[in-house]
Each structure stands twice: as structure tokens, then as C-alpha cells.
Write a structure and sequence with these properties.
The complex is a heterodimer of chains A (112) and B (116). Chain A has no helices and 11 strands. Chain A has 112 residues and is mostly beta strands. In chain A, the strands form 2 sheets. In chain A, strands 2, 4, 5, 6, 9, 10 and 11 form a 7-stranded mixed β-sheet that branches. The radius of gyration of chain A is 13 Å and the shape is globular. Chain A starts with a strand and ends with a strand. Chain B is mainly β and 116 residues long. Helices cover 0% and strands 56% of the residues of chain B. Chain B contains no helices and 11 strands. In chain B, strands 2, 4, 5, 9, 10 and 11 form a 6-stranded mixed β-sheet that branches. A 5-stranded antiparallel β-sheet of chain B has the order 1-3-8-7-6, with no helix packed on it. In chain B, a hairpin with a 5-residue loop joins strand 4 and strand 5. Chain B is globular. The N and C termini of chain B lie far apart (41 Å). The model of chain B has no long low-confidence stretch (mean pLDDT 94). The chains are: A mainly beta (112), B mainly beta (116). Chains A and B meet through strand 5 and strand 10 of A and strand 4, strand 5 and strand 9 of B.
Chain lengths: 112, 116
């Protein structure tokens, strides 16, 4: 069966510090991978998606970036965090547009 | 522009009640629709996915229906239990070319409390 791992679960970082959130999927190959951010009362916002190694599409201009160094690994990064980067970050995968979307447990990021 | 609305935003029911959660969308040209459950502080769990050609999907006590012409989907929960307490979200995937042209548009969810 397929599983998705996302870490860390919580993170407190000062403004201007770097960020690296990691997500890995097991039990499938060549999944579509996604990074979402969820803010209270604002719903889910798609940040990045990837349909293959090295193929990253950005949805929202921001100081975040994503990379997919391996087939089942997706990384969300920032060189310098802003206060507005605080939020709940979710990694997700699917086998394709016609398949269900499966989420990790999320990372609660607080930028102080 | 596709908009997805879930009303009510919050719902409280006694245990054992059958209930219906609503999801409305403005553009009937959809690829599929998904229902998710989210427990506080956790990620989303996929409940049911309905393809645009389907009218309903069932899983255990859950039944989701889709009426594209009216722009509506309902999630029916039979014999509700306290463990069903969570936020339920629906998401519509739009028609388009493969990849992110088939965008997922999200509702804000209905927060359900089932009281023992």
C-alpha cells in the first residue's frame, strides 16, 4: 500500500532563516506531487506541483521554492522566511487527475 | 471562474442522526469531485471521488452524489457517530488539459460535531 511521510510536524523559525520541509511517498512510482498551504478561513492554496523528477510548476509567486530530486521525494524550501509564511503546509500525491489526492499529516510552521 | 461553496460552515447533530453535507459549484464543466475529511491539526483524508460521468459513490456509511447540471454534490452520512466529528471539504477538478490546467478548486469546508 502507498504511504506518504511529511516532516517535521511542527517548526518554529525566526524571520530571515531558511526553510526545508521534506515529503516522501512510498509504494508507488512517478506520482504527481503537490505542496499546499492552508490558512484559517482561506481554504487550501496550491503552491507547487510536479509531474516528474525536476519538473516543478509554481502557482503563486512568493519566496518559496520546491524541488523534486528523486521520483518520490518533494522538498519545499525558502532562503529567508517572512512572517507571512506562517501556516499549515501539506504535501500530497496522486496517480493522476482521475485518481484521489492523498495528503501527509502536515507541518505547522510558525515564523517569529 | 469556478467557485465552490459549502453551506453550512458548521453543523452540530446528535449521535445516530443521518445527515447531508452540501457542496455547490458554479461551473458544471468539471473533471471530477472529491470529498475529504480533516481532523484538527491533521492532513486531509480522501473519502470519495466521483468522476464527472458518475452520479454517486458509496463507501461504508458514506454516500456522495453528483448533479453536474445543478452544480451540486451532497455527502450523506448514515447513523452518525462522535468519531465522524471533523471538517469535511469538497474539491472540484476542472476540465482542461492534463496537468495543472485541471485545477482543483476547494470549498472552505463544513465543520461537523456529532454529540454523544
Amino acid at each position: 500500500s502507498q504511504t506518504i511521510h511529511q516532516w517535521p510536524a511542527t517548526l518554529v523559525q525566526p524571520v530571515g532563516s531558511p526553510l526545508s520541509l521534506e515529503c516522501t511517498v512510498e509504494g508507488t512510482s512517478n506520482p504527481n506531487l503537490y505542496w499546499y498551504r492552508q490558512a484559517a478561513g482561506r481554504g487550501l492554496q496550491l503552491l507547487f506541483y510536479s509531474v516528474g523528477i525536476g519538473q516543478i510548476s509554481s502557482e503563486v509567486p512568493q519566496n518559496l521554492s520546491a524541488s523534486r530530486p528523486q521520483d518520490r521525494q518533494f522538498i519545499l524550501s525558502s532562503k529567508k522566511l517572512l512572517l507571512s509564511d506562517s501556516g499549515f503546509y501539506l504535501c500530497a500525491w496522486s496517480e493522476g487527475d482521475g485518481s484521489p489526492l492523498h495528503f501527509g499529516n502536515g507541518t505547522r510552521l510558525t515564523v517569529t | 471562474k469556478q467557485e465552490v461553496t459549502q453551506i453550512p460552515a458548521a453543523l452540530s447533530v446528535p449521535e445516530g442522526e443521518n445527515l447531508v453535507l452540501n457542496c455547490s459549484f458554479t461551473d458544471s464543466a468539471i473533471y471530477n469531485l472529491q470529498w475529504f475529511r480533516q481532523d484538527p491539526g491533521k492532513g486531509l483524508t480522501s473519502l470519495l471521488l466521483i468522476q464527472s460521468s458518475q452520479r454517486e459513490q458509496t463507501s461504508g456509511r458514506l454516500n456522495a452524489s453528483l448533479d453536474k447540471s445543478s452544480g451540486r454534490s451532497t455527502l450523506y452520512i448514515a447513523a452518525s457517530q462522535p468519531g465522524d466529528s471533523a471538517t469535511y471539504l469538497c474539491a472540484v477538478r476542472q476540465l482542461g488539459y492534463a496537468g495543472n490546467n485541471r485545477k482543483l478548486i476547494w470549498g472552505l469546508g463544513t465543520s461537523l460535531a456529532v454529540n454523544p
